[in-house]
Design a protein that fits this description.
The structure is a single chain. The chain is α+β, with helices and mostly antiparallel strands. It has one domain (about 10-70). About 35% of the residues lie in helices and about 20% in strands. The protein has 2 helices and 3 strands, in the order ββαβα. The protein has helices at about 25-35, 55-70, and strands at about 10, 15-20, 40-45. It has a 3-stranded mixed beta sheet, covered by helices on one side. β1 (about 10) and β2 form a beta hairpin. The longest helix has 14 residues, at about 55-70. It is flat, with a radius of gyration of 16 Å.
Length: about 80
């Protein structure tokens, strides 16, 4: 995605999903989410290259992924 491309957006009546790769896209996505006239849930997915993340963030992501892949607790 070029730096001038807008964030990827998918809008439904109940939610908005934005996908960003740069700081400028993140700023635009936040403005889009905050400027929505209708009340809806907004998701912003930030795509970050593995080399641009800390070791701690990568370890945390692995733990979150493992936790999300477990079956639900039937309480």
């Amino acid at each position: 995605m070029a730096a001038t491309d807008p964030p990827t957006a998918t809008a439904q009546k109940s939610h908005l999903f934005l996908q960003v790769r740069t700081e400028a896209e993140l700023t635009e996505a936040i403005a889009t989410a905050m400027g929505r006239q209708e009340r809806c849930l907004c998701f912003i997915e930030v795509i970050v290259h593995k080399d641009d993340t800390s070791k701690e963030l990568l370890e945390w992501g692995s733990r979150v992924s493992a936790a999300n892949s477990r079956p639900p607790n039937p309480q």
